């Protein structure tokens, strides 16, 4: 009987770039739905997060609006999905060379750690450049980012094409 244990050492393996971007895009959609559900459950303004995200492109003008705005929503969607795809690619750059997609548990654990690190980076490092983002430091945002990481990792593993060594 031949037993194969997965080694998580680095190998020359490229991520599946297209799948990585799709995984981040899809996980970004899941995060947006989670943020909306959290806002509705708490009885808070569902347009708060889109305004804060849109401010990356629109500046203070997005922060001055209240309620629904098509321009703010369009800017927020553009930023959110572009960053989601970029973070999906970054996650795949960790998963592929270390074979962290060898099992569902391993890839979900990797996604959990990535989501946690992403939250810490976004809301404790990036707030020096974007101070309005500090108001989103809460458990719901942390949970949303962990869900993003796990969803992106799961989608990546589910969709990635088999790797064939040369």
SSE layout and pairing:
Blueprint: H1 17-42, H2 48-58, H3 60-64, H4 70-95, H5 104-125, H6 139-159
Helix pairs in contact: 1-4, 1-6, 2-4, 4-6, 5-6
Compact description:
It contains six helices and no strands. It is mainly α and 166 residues long.
The oligomeric status of these chains comes to single chain
- How far is the first residue's CA from the last residue's CA? 26 Å
Task: Catalogue the unreliable spans.
Answer: none
Helical region count? 6
Helix content: 55-70%
Structural class of the secondary elements? mainly alpha
Write structural notes for this entry.
The chain has a domain at 17-43 and 81-159. It is 67% helix and 0% strand. The protein contains six helices and no strands.
